[in-house]
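Data availability excerpt. The first of two example chains:
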Amino acid sequence: MKRLLFSVLLGISLLALSPVVPVVGEQTAYAEKRFNLEKSLKRLKANPRYRGKILGVRAVRTSRGKLMEVRILKSNDKIILVYIDPDTGGVVSDSRK
């Protein structure tokens, strides 16, 4: 029982001494990417061509690199896919014909 208690206390003390800087840096980078996504989604909603309900967003890898795929439900009950460049926030392509 003493060994278990000692190992738990040792583990907690090691966690308390671990550096926090890398985690904070990752969170900052994530927040910047998230801000760009929110900004590009607002711009996407403002475009009459892409008006509708956004069903979801996911990251996909393509031959052009990493893109964000946005699924939009149009008023005519059709779903279109819009691909956004996460760095620029601009529309790369869509599934409309």
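And the second chain:
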Amino acid sequence: MFIQGRLVRLSSRASIAAFAILFAARAQAQQQQGAAALDVKSATHLRAEYLADLDTLHDKIVQLAKAIPADKYNWRPSPDVRTIGQVLMHVAGEFYYYTPRSIGGQGPADYGPAQAKNAALEKISAKAEVLDHLDKSWAHTKAQFAASDATKLTGSYQPWNMPLDRAAFSMDGDLHEHLGQLIAYARSVGVKPPWTK
């Protein structure tokens, strides 16, 4: 009787332990699924906020590009830096190639090697062409964002091998720097940023 009672208690403990292990495994699986869903939700939100800020940047850069007279596009504060037109085309190059790459996207199919293409773009200085490229490159970036899969933007993803938040801060920070550069250039040639009072 004693042995039988002890076996019943051991059997009950084993059942409780097995249930606890099963419950813990199930809870962990649900937690991982919840974390994955949260990661996708966070990536979706971050991607949307990133695009919204890029949209603001694009708008302000285009406003400056339109406000600066065409004859000032070759102006630069010193011989060792880009001209106004070159900075604007550098931004277009980033919208064509590097900004889409920051969310795992691609440059345009006919873009070719980025360094060579970006160098060729920076030789364009006619205002109408610059404005055209700013719009085309921005349309390409938006299309790449729309085609991106948020489930692939969690964790480190290719090609930058970093998470979305770091990629966004890196790319966005660089473009904000160019906006500041263009504001300084515009003021240097007597153009007040159109959105200021």
